[in-house]
Specification:
This protein has 15 helices and ten strands. It is of the alpha/beta class. The chain is globular and about 65 Å long. It starts with 6 loop residues before the first helix and ends with a helix. It binds ligand F0G. The site of ligand F0G has 22 residues, from helix 4, helix 9 and helix 13. Ligand F0G binds next to helix 4, helix 9 and helix 13.
């Protein structure tokens, strides 16, 4: 069996790299496409649903796909430092790849709105973490300007190499299924990933590697749904902090992907997100973060539109371990504490 050497090595011919590009990799990519039979059966017709579990990347999110490219190209260009704004996952990935590539990583995060695991990662990977009293949208404005004024390379998804790396998620889906799915359901925040997936499907289609192109179904949290309402949200709010974004940078590209694919944008409430989050974990054994569950919540919300016989892929963008606070606070499981260390006390607690 050929070893997996990371997505730049494996998809080199589709990526803007050369022999002179120093590849900074943690062997990201090659994440599993997992069938979800319980969820498939909830749709009530012959439908095959899979999840692309990108939470199994080295830093626990799809951002690693974009970051291996962005950091390798920054290193090739001689950068000494990178900067990004982040709701958490980008900062973790930027920190890990930048440090591995021998660069400094500055990350701006919205103070108090980054899940615990992501903050822990950025700190331990060795980023310089700057928490601002403002939201992600403001942080992105600041870092865009910083990268013009100071010698720091911007590694948000407005950096085109990020999308180049992230399009490999679509390649992997086709490589496993043998064709594109009928539907691709994906959470949307800054709108980079939906843009990247569409690029990937289109490139594979042009190369003759798939016959179909999927409908791109983008899902936003109801309190942060600018692409659904058509106007920017000044104060976005959602429990899914990863997609707590009111003015997505790749707005136009995401709209173009939706239109060209006959797709849709829809919103899901925090309660719908939490229902899908618990369902994935407790019925399928798959622990994703709340933002990721928006793809499944959204698919279930519009399930009547899914044609019988369809193949649907939901992208699970981040690992559930990123956000332990939400998991503990919103699980429906029995959790009794302070039980006496005795057989009878435990049996009583078990209801036996
Ligand atoms: N899911 C997760 C887990 C994310 O972290 C993000 C974005 C998205 C979905 C949305 O992807 O922005 O390409 O539409 N997180 C960014 C960050 C904003 O800073 O980590 P998108």
């Amino acid at each position: 069996r050929q070893p997996w050497l990371g997505l730049i090595e494996m998809y080199r011919q589709y990526l803007p790299v050369s022999d002179r590009t120093p590849v900074v990799t943690l062997h990201e990519g090659n994440t599993p496409l997992i069938p979800v039979p319980y969820i498939s059966q909830l749709i009530g017709k012959q439908v095959r649903v899979f999840v692309k579990y990108d939470g199994l990347n080295p830093t626990g999110s799809f951002k690693d796909r974009g970051m291996t490219m962005a950091i390798s190209k920054a290193k090739e260009a001689g950068a000494k430092a990178v900067i990004c704004a982040s709701t958490g996952n980008t900062s973790a990935a930027a920190a890990a790849y930048a440090r591995r590539g021998g660069m400094k990583a500055f990350v701006l995060i919205p103070d108090g709105y980054v899940a615990l695991g992501k903050l822990a990662q950025a700190l331990l990977y060795g980023a310089e973490v700057l928490a601002i009293q403002g939201n992600f949208d403001r942080a992105l404005e600041i870092v865009r300007e910083m990268s013009e004024k100071y010698p720091v390379t911007l590694v948000n998804s407005v950096n085109p190499y990020r999308l180049e790396g992230q399009k490999t998620g679509a390649f992997e889906v086709v490589d496993i299924l043998g064709d594109a799915p009928d539907w691709l359901c994906i959470p949307v925040g800054n709108a980079g990933n939906i843009t990247a997936y569409w690029m990937g499907f289109c490139e594979y289609h042009q190369a003759g590697l798939c016959d179909r192109l999927p409908r791109m179904m983008g899902f936003q949290a109801a309190g942060a749904a600018p692409l659904v309402t058509g106007h920017a949200v000044a104060n976005p709010e959602t429990i899914a902090t990863a997609i707590r974004i009111g003015n997505p940078a790749s707005w136009d590209k995401a709209v173009a992907a939706k239109s060209a694919s006959a797709g849709e944008f829809n919103s899901v409430t925090d309660d719908e997100i939490l229902d899908a989050y618990r369902l994935l974990a407790s019925e399928e054994g798959i622990f994703c973060e709340p933002a990721s569950a928006a793809s499944v919540a959204g698919m279930l919300k519009v399930k009547d539109q899914i044609p019988s016989g369809a193949t649907v892929v939901c992208v699970l963008t981040g690992n559930g371990l990123k956000d332990p606070d939400t998991a503990i606070k919103h699980s429906n499981s029995l959790f009794k504490q302070g039980i006496a260390p005795e057989i009878q006390a435990v049996a009583d607690a078990m209801g036996m």
